[in-house]
Amino acid sequence: MTDKGRRFEVVNRDGEVFEGTTMAEARAKMIAAARDEMARRHAANPDAVPQFNLRMARLAAARKREQQRFDHLVMGKPRPVERVTEGRKSGRRRPKTVERPVRLEPGIEEAVQLREAWDHKVYGTPETHERASRTHSGALAQLNRNGTITNDQLEWAAQIANVYRSLEADVAVKVASLEARVDQSRRSGDAAESVYRVRMHLAYGYWRDMIPVPKQLVLDMIVGDAIGYTIAARIYRVHNRRAKRLLLEALDRWPRCVAHAFSMVDHATADAMNHGRTVDPVWLDGPSKAYWGQVDPTAPPTTGQPAIIGIDLASRPDLSGPVQTLDPAFLDERGLLREWSEIAEIIRARLVE
């Protein structure tokens, strides 16, 4: 026997209570009240429903993107595929079903493409391989990275390249205005060249004179758009080992050339040359003759001085022997050339003199 006086109640989110003799009746009253409220709101604001639908669409898109991000970027799942139908039915010919990769959301699609492009690599991340493929590092930087040349040798190569660019800038064709103008500079038109610039140009001259033939082989590997020693060897038709040896020996000569130039030219000499005074050219005998020159016994006695074997001995520098004509500041207690770090400190200290 049922209790006919029993009442059922349903409460909505706003706390309103709806009663009925049955649960279905109570729910029907709640739904009817909700529809009436929705109709009232729509009459008051007709754009509310499209805005709600747009908001729900944005939430669905964000939920889909987050799911793809978690699946493919966090968990590393492969790209999904979908089966699509290609072609149309024509006579006995039926459309075929093929599998195509699904295009993912923006931001996730690019990351998955990058991972798929470098998926064959065993070591390294896809981002590292992609950056390495788009970044052109110089041949000397690559040699330094794989341990062929040291950090000091890379620094010497950069100094040689800078001096080479400075010399190129001095002889470049420039445009000048020939209009009359007043020079208001404090130096009164005295274009004196810095001592450091003179010394570095002199060191480059020493260094270039000591390069064996063909000189352009070594220059192409250091100055300008430097190329690798394997490419230079193929261009100049020499063995890779010879091109590599010439490069390393040329770089190792630079510290002694710099030390010799700083020993030969001081501030007084540079000032005298800038003002046009006569100076004893003590710098003409570079380190190629002072340190690596030897007497050639097979040379004909046509001159008063012995012949110098510059090319062969320049390719085999002897850095262990004592140096006699350098500034004593560049020599250690045994009379040998100091390390490059010490030479660089001495040069930097003299720049502020």
Explained architecture:
The structure is a single chain. With 353 residues, the protein is mainly α. The chain has a domain at 139-170 and 192-351. Helix content is 51%, strand content 6%. It is built from 14 helices and four strands. It has a two-stranded antiparallel sheet with strand order 1-2. Strands 3-4 form a two-stranded antiparallel sheet. A hairpin with a 5-residue loop joins β1 (8-11) and β2 (17-20). The longest helix is centred in the first third of the chain and has 27 residues, at 48-74. The chain is elongated and about 130 Å long.
Write a compact overview of the structure shown.
The chain is built from 14 helices and four strands. The protein has 353 residues and is mainly alpha-helical.
Main sheet properties: 2 strands, antiparallel
Shape: elongated
Low-confidence stretches: 172-192, 289-324
Count of strand segments? 4
Helix content: 40-55%
Strand content: 5-15%
Itemize the secondary structure elements and their pairings.
Blueprint: E1 8-11, E2 17-20, H1 23-44, H2 48-74, E3 81-86, E4 96-101, H3 108-117, H4 126-134, H5 139-145, H6 151-171, H7 195-209, H8 215-220, H9 229-236, H10 240-264, H11 267-274, H12 287-290, H13 310-314, H14 340-351
Antiparallel strand pairs: 1-2, 3-4
Helix pairs in contact: 6-7, 6-10, 7-10, 9-10
